[in-house]
From TrEMBL:
Residues 7-69 form the RNA polymerase sigma-70 region domain. Interacts transiently with the RNA polymerase catalytic core formed by RpoA, RpoB, RpoC and RpoZ (2 alpha, 1 beta, 1 beta' and 1 omega subunit) to form the RNA polymerase holoenzyme that can initiate transcription. This is RNA polymerase sigma-70 factor. It comes from the Bacteria. Residues 105-156 form the RNA polymerase sigma factor 70 region 4 type domain. Keywords: Sigma factor, Transcription, Transcription regulation. It comes from Kribbella sancticallisti. SUPFAM superfamilies: NTF2-like, Sigma2 domain of RNA polymerase sigma factors, Sigma3 and sigma4 domains of RNA polymerase sigma factors.
């Protein structure tokens, strides 16, 4: 088997590792490409190609994350990971860990960890690497990696919700939600939300935004009903699908261009958090991006046709 063939067999795994460390589709793709260049240039055969490439992409991702931390500190408004529609790596033996770790909520929890803790957690807890492989990947002793894993696991467990919905319940609730917002059904929306529901968006200062967030059943219900129904009337499309392994949607304008993505955190039978990504820089990998300002203006005109 050639180097290129070996690499292609592992590309999905490498991307999935990098995305969980970085929270960015574009940066993960760049890390995978850099991994290939280093692998192509490496002269010696490797005992385990999987271990070698996983270590390389992890080190690259750690370096990128360290520099990205400074950019994120200066980011305008709330920072969310770039939305991921499909995780290319599948492993039935670790399906639960893989699905949980790619959610927006989990990726935001990972942001609280140091780059080393994050890398160790991803390799060990998500992908099931042995501590010897983890230690080789991050350049620390096995004992140090065990300590990093314990700290990371403690932080992650402390931040996780205690009551998660099962898949069928999530899908049924999401279906009702998307039907209600398309129809502008305020009463229907009220029945779906937790009392402390919140709607938060990441615009990066490059798209329209509703302040620091919308909070509470009444405010969230009324805003969604008042904006999504007229958006649909002007030809906008709410394309329901999984985003980061959660119920979500891509919003498109009448020409099919991406306006934003949306994900739902569903806990204990209610929608707890709605997260929208509007920053056009984080949507480009999904296809052509709409002019969100123009879409909002047209939507507002549809809400107030006499103005």
């Amino acid at each position: 088997m050639t180097k290129a063939e070996e690499f292609e067999q592992l590309r999905a795994l490498l991307f999935s590792i990098a995305y969980r460390i970085l929270g960015s589709v574009s940066e993960a793709e760049d890390a995978v490409q850099e991994t290939w260049l280093r692998y192509e240039a490496s002269p010696a055969p490797h005992t385990s190609t999987k271990s070698f490439l996983s270590a390389v992409v992890t080190r690259i991702s750690i370096d990128v994350l360290r520099s990205a931390r400074f950019r994120r500190e200066e980011y305008v408004g709330q920072w969310f990971p770039e939305p991921l529609l499909t995780d290319p790596y599948e492993d039935p033996a670790r399906s639960a860990e893989l699905a949980d770790s790619v959610s927006m909520a989990a990726l935001l929890l990972l942001e609280r960890l140091s780059p080393l803790e994050r890398a160790v957690f991803v390799l060990r807890e998500v992908f099931g690497f042995g501590f010897a492989e983890v230690a080789a990947a991050v350049g620390r002793s096995e004992a140090a990696c065990r300590q990093l894993a314990v700290r990371a696991r403690r932080h992650m467990d402390a931040g996780r919700a205690r009551f998660a919905a099962d898949r069928r319940e999530r899908e049924e609730l999401a279906d009702r939600f998307f039907q209600a917002i398309r129809e502008g059904d305020v009463d229907g929306l009220r029945t779906l939300f937790a009392a402390d529901v919140q709607m938060i968006a990441d615009s990066g200062g490059k798209a329209p935004l509703w302040g620091k967030g919308i909070f509470g059943v009444e405010n969230v219900s009324r805003l969604l009903a008042a904006t999504i129904a007229p958006f649909v009337r002007i030809g906008g499309v709410v394309e329901a699908q999984e985003v980061n392994g959660q119920p979500g949607a891509i919003f498109r304008d009448r020409d099919g261009r991406v306006v934003n993505t949306l994900t739902l955190d569903i806990l204990d039978g209610r929608i707890q958090t709605i997260r929208a990504v509007l920053n056009p820089d984080k949507l480009a990998h999904l296809g052509p991006v709409a002019d969100a300002w123009s879409v909002v203006r047209e939507t507002n005109q549809a809400r107030h046709p006499s103005d």
